[in-house]
Amino acid sequence: MDYTSEQSAGIAAVGAVGGIIYLALIVLIIASLWKVFTKAGKPGWASLIPIYNIIVLLEIIGKPTIWILWMLIPCVNIYFGIWAMNLLSKSFGKSEGFTAGLILLPVVFYPILGFGDARYLGPAAAEAQQGFPGTNNPFGTNNPFGTNDPFNKPPTTPQA
Predict the structure, then answer these.
(1) What percentage of residues in the chain have a pLDDT greater than 90?
(2) Mean pLDDT of the chain, nearest integer
(3) CA-CA distance, 46 to 38, in Å (whole number)?
(4) pTM of the predicted model, to two decimals?
(5) From residue 139, how far is each of 82, 128, 135 by CA, in Å?
(6) Residue 55: is its pLDDT beyond 70?
(7) Angle at 60 (CA atoms; ends 98, 121), nearest 5 degrees
(8) DSSP per position, 94-123
(9) How far apart are alpha carbons 4 and 2 in whole angstroms?
């Protein structure tokens, strides 16, 4: 197929415009993540460094650093990535619908999170690390153990 110079120039122009749009979207996502990190009290530049940005994100959502291992394993990282995005939206007081938006339309939802009125409420996973509020009884008033409750007994230390 023979291309004329006009056709070649048109194809090049389409490629250049597409490249500029792509770069603009990348800059928007980077700026949004920078703002999300800043809102959470972390340095914004941390969003630029690969691997380290995941470690800082894990601090923001309240998960242990060992999760970096799970996020580097193929196929497992999809599950943990979705879970991390859910905890990120919960850390900013958003719902599961916002999590779906972060996953499916990050170009729209990261700027909403970063530049919008969302406030960082603290790590969403912190309550899981601290245990249940009050007592350690996950059953509340519907305790099937009655008075023989293994969840509310103080830890025993071995006798010497």
Answers:
(1) 49
(2) 81
(3) 9
(4) 0.70
(5) 28, 15, 10
(6) yes
(7) 65
(8) --HHHHHHHHH-HHHHHHHHHHSS----S-
(9) 7
